[in-house]
Design brief:
Blueprint: H1 2-18, E1 30-34, E2 37-44, H2 46-56, H3 62-69, E3 73-81, H4 96-108, E4 114-118, E5 121-123, E6 127-130, E7 140-146, H5 154-158, E8 161-167, E9 175-181
Antiparallel strand pairs: 1-2, 2-3, 3-7, 4-5, 4-8, 6-7, 8-9
Helix pairs in contact: 2-3
Length: about 190
Protein backbone atom coordinates (compact mmCIF):
# COMPACT_ATOMS: atom_id res chain seq x y z
CA UNK A 1 0.00 0.00 0.00
CA UNK A 2 2.85 2.40 0.86
CA UNK A 3 4.51 1.70 -2.48
CA UNK A 4 1.27 2.53 -4.30
CA UNK A 5 0.94 5.81 -2.37
CA UNK A 6 4.57 6.77 -3.03
CA UNK A 7 4.26 5.98 -6.74
CA UNK A 8 1.00 7.91 -6.93
CA UNK A 9 2.58 10.93 -5.21
CA UNK A 10 5.51 10.77 -7.64
CA UNK A 11 3.10 10.55 -10.57
CA UNK A 12 1.04 13.42 -9.18
CA UNK A 13 4.04 15.76 -8.87
CA UNK A 14 5.40 14.73 -12.27
CA UNK A 15 2.01 15.29 -13.89
CA UNK A 16 1.57 18.69 -12.32
CA UNK A 17 4.90 20.03 -13.48
CA UNK A 18 4.77 18.50 -16.96
CA UNK A 19 1.14 19.00 -18.10
CA UNK A 20 0.30 22.13 -19.98
CA UNK A 21 -3.17 23.41 -20.78
CA UNK A 22 -2.34 23.16 -24.50
CA UNK A 23 -2.42 19.37 -24.26
CA UNK A 24 -5.88 19.26 -22.72
CA UNK A 25 -9.06 18.63 -24.60
CA UNK A 26 -10.97 21.76 -25.62
CA UNK A 27 -14.32 20.38 -24.50
CA UNK A 28 -12.96 19.73 -21.01
CA UNK A 29 -12.36 23.43 -20.37
CA UNK A 30 -14.72 25.42 -18.17
CA UNK A 31 -14.39 29.14 -17.38
CA UNK A 32 -16.14 31.66 -15.14
CA UNK A 33 -15.49 35.38 -14.65
CA UNK A 34 -16.26 36.54 -11.12
CA UNK A 35 -15.21 39.72 -9.30
CA UNK A 36 -12.38 40.46 -11.72
CA UNK A 37 -10.95 36.94 -11.61
CA UNK A 38 -11.15 34.20 -14.19
CA UNK A 39 -11.58 30.65 -12.94
CA UNK A 40 -10.51 28.00 -15.46
CA UNK A 41 -10.96 24.30 -14.88
CA UNK A 42 -9.32 21.67 -17.06
CA UNK A 43 -9.79 17.90 -16.93
CA UNK A 44 -6.61 15.92 -17.59
CA UNK A 45 -7.50 12.70 -19.40
CA UNK A 46 -5.86 9.32 -18.75
CA UNK A 47 -4.74 9.35 -22.39
CA UNK A 48 -2.88 12.65 -21.90
CA UNK A 49 -1.20 11.33 -18.75
CA UNK A 50 -0.22 8.09 -20.49
CA UNK A 51 1.19 9.97 -23.50
CA UNK A 52 3.28 12.18 -21.22
CA UNK A 53 4.69 9.21 -19.35
CA UNK A 54 5.25 7.26 -22.55
CA UNK A 55 7.23 10.20 -23.98
CA UNK A 56 9.82 9.60 -21.26
CA UNK A 57 9.79 5.80 -21.43
CA UNK A 58 8.21 4.33 -24.56
CA UNK A 59 8.83 0.77 -23.40
CA UNK A 60 5.61 0.94 -21.37
CA UNK A 61 2.39 -0.27 -23.00
CA UNK A 62 0.05 2.69 -23.67
CA UNK A 63 -3.12 0.66 -23.01
CA UNK A 64 -1.95 -0.43 -19.58
CA UNK A 65 -0.88 3.15 -18.75
CA UNK A 66 -4.29 4.51 -19.76
CA UNK A 67 -6.02 1.81 -17.72
CA UNK A 68 -3.85 2.68 -14.71
CA UNK A 69 -4.61 6.42 -14.98
CA UNK A 70 -8.32 5.81 -15.57
CA UNK A 71 -8.61 4.81 -11.90
CA UNK A 72 -8.40 8.46 -10.88
CA UNK A 73 -9.59 11.88 -12.05
CA UNK A 74 -7.25 14.88 -12.32
CA UNK A 75 -8.23 18.52 -12.72
CA UNK A 76 -6.26 21.76 -12.95
CA UNK A 77 -7.92 24.86 -11.49
CA UNK A 78 -6.43 28.16 -12.65
CA UNK A 79 -7.17 31.41 -10.85
CA UNK A 80 -6.17 34.35 -13.04
CA UNK A 81 -6.90 38.10 -12.99
CA UNK A 82 -9.36 38.83 -15.85
CA UNK A 83 -7.05 41.30 -17.55
CA UNK A 84 -3.96 39.23 -16.61
CA UNK A 85 -2.37 42.32 -15.14
CA UNK A 86 -0.92 42.16 -11.68
CA UNK A 87 -0.60 39.02 -9.60
CA UNK A 88 -3.54 37.11 -8.17
CA UNK A 89 -1.46 36.57 -5.03
CA UNK A 90 -1.12 40.29 -4.33
CA UNK A 91 -4.42 41.62 -5.68
CA UNK A 92 -6.37 41.17 -2.45
CA UNK A 93 -3.71 41.57 0.25
CA UNK A 94 -2.63 44.67 2.14
CA UNK A 95 0.58 43.50 3.83
CA UNK A 96 3.10 40.70 3.98
CA UNK A 97 1.23 38.80 6.72
CA UNK A 98 -1.88 38.61 4.53
CA UNK A 99 0.27 37.53 1.57
CA UNK A 100 1.91 34.79 3.67
CA UNK A 101 -1.50 33.58 4.85
CA UNK A 102 -2.89 33.52 1.29
CA UNK A 103 0.18 31.68 0.07
CA UNK A 104 -0.18 29.11 2.84
CA UNK A 105 -3.89 28.61 2.10
CA UNK A 106 -3.31 28.17 -1.63
CA UNK A 107 -0.41 25.77 -1.08
CA UNK A 108 -1.76 23.65 1.76
CA UNK A 109 -5.49 24.24 2.30
CA UNK A 110 -7.04 24.16 -1.19
CA UNK A 111 -8.17 20.55 -0.92
CA UNK A 112 -10.52 21.65 1.88
CA UNK A 113 -12.27 24.02 -0.56
CA UNK A 114 -12.78 21.52 -3.38
CA UNK A 115 -14.82 18.38 -3.84
CA UNK A 116 -16.17 16.26 -6.65
CA UNK A 117 -19.79 15.11 -6.65
CA UNK A 118 -20.39 11.97 -8.66
CA UNK A 119 -23.88 10.55 -8.49
CA UNK A 120 -24.93 10.84 -4.87
CA UNK A 121 -21.40 10.63 -3.43
CA UNK A 122 -18.88 13.33 -2.58
CA UNK A 123 -15.16 12.77 -3.14
CA UNK A 124 -12.44 14.97 -1.71
CA UNK A 125 -9.06 15.30 -3.41
CA UNK A 126 -6.36 12.96 -2.14
CA UNK A 127 -3.67 15.32 -3.43
CA UNK A 128 -3.45 18.95 -4.37
CA UNK A 129 -0.51 21.15 -5.29
CA UNK A 130 -0.10 24.73 -6.40
CA UNK A 131 2.40 25.62 -9.06
CA UNK A 132 4.88 28.09 -7.60
CA UNK A 133 5.99 30.37 -10.40
CA UNK A 134 7.42 33.15 -8.22
CA UNK A 135 5.22 35.86 -9.73
CA UNK A 136 6.28 35.18 -13.33
CA UNK A 137 2.65 35.03 -14.44
CA UNK A 138 -0.52 36.63 -13.19
CA UNK A 139 -2.43 33.50 -12.15
CA UNK A 140 -1.87 30.30 -10.26
CA UNK A 141 -2.61 26.69 -11.22
CA UNK A 142 -3.65 24.11 -8.67
CA UNK A 143 -3.91 20.44 -9.58
CA UNK A 144 -6.32 18.10 -7.80
CA UNK A 145 -6.40 14.33 -7.91
CA UNK A 146 -9.45 12.30 -6.92
CA UNK A 147 -9.62 8.56 -6.32
CA UNK A 148 -12.39 6.37 -4.92
CA UNK A 149 -12.02 4.62 -1.57
CA UNK A 150 -11.91 1.30 -3.44
CA UNK A 151 -11.69 0.05 -7.00
CA UNK A 152 -15.17 -1.47 -6.53
CA UNK A 153 -16.80 1.97 -6.13
CA UNK A 154 -19.28 1.77 -9.01
CA UNK A 155 -20.49 5.37 -8.49
CA UNK A 156 -17.03 6.83 -9.15
CA UNK A 157 -16.56 4.75 -12.29
CA UNK A 158 -20.05 4.59 -13.79
CA UNK A 159 -22.16 7.62 -12.85
CA UNK A 160 -23.22 9.69 -15.89
CA UNK A 161 -22.21 13.13 -14.62
CA UNK A 162 -19.80 14.75 -12.23
CA UNK A 163 -19.59 18.17 -10.65
CA UNK A 164 -16.36 19.81 -9.53
CA UNK A 165 -17.13 22.31 -6.76
CA UNK A 166 -14.80 25.05 -5.56
CA UNK A 167 -16.00 26.78 -2.39
CA UNK A 168 -13.78 29.85 -2.48
CA UNK A 169 -12.75 31.33 0.86
CA UNK A 170 -9.88 33.44 -0.47
CA UNK A 171 -11.10 35.85 -3.18
CA UNK A 172 -14.84 36.34 -2.46
CA UNK A 173 -15.83 34.19 -5.42
CA UNK A 174 -18.47 32.13 -3.60
CA UNK A 175 -19.35 28.56 -4.47
CA UNK A 176 -18.50 27.59 -8.04
CA UNK A 177 -19.75 24.47 -9.81
CA UNK A 178 -18.27 23.02 -12.99
CA UNK A 179 -20.38 20.19 -14.39
CA UNK A 180 -19.26 17.53 -16.86
CA UNK A 181 -20.81 14.45 -18.38
CA UNK A 182 -18.81 11.26 -18.47
CA UNK A 183 -19.40 11.05 -22.23
CA UNK A 184 -18.12 14.60 -22.73
CA UNK A 185 -14.84 13.72 -21.00
CA UNK A 186 -14.54 10.35 -22.76
CA UNK A 187 -14.38 8.56 -19.44
CA UNK A 188 -15.05 4.84 -19.80
Amino acid sequence: MKIAKVSFIFFFCWTFFSCSSKSLSENSDREKNINGLLLKLHYISPKTLAQRENANDNSINMDSLEKYYSRSLQFVLSIVPEDEKGDVMTSSVKNYNEYAELSHEMNFEMEKMVYLTIGDKIYYPVLSAMENIYGMKAGRDIIFSFVPASLQDSTFYQSDSLCFTYEDQLFNLGINHFTYSRKELNIN
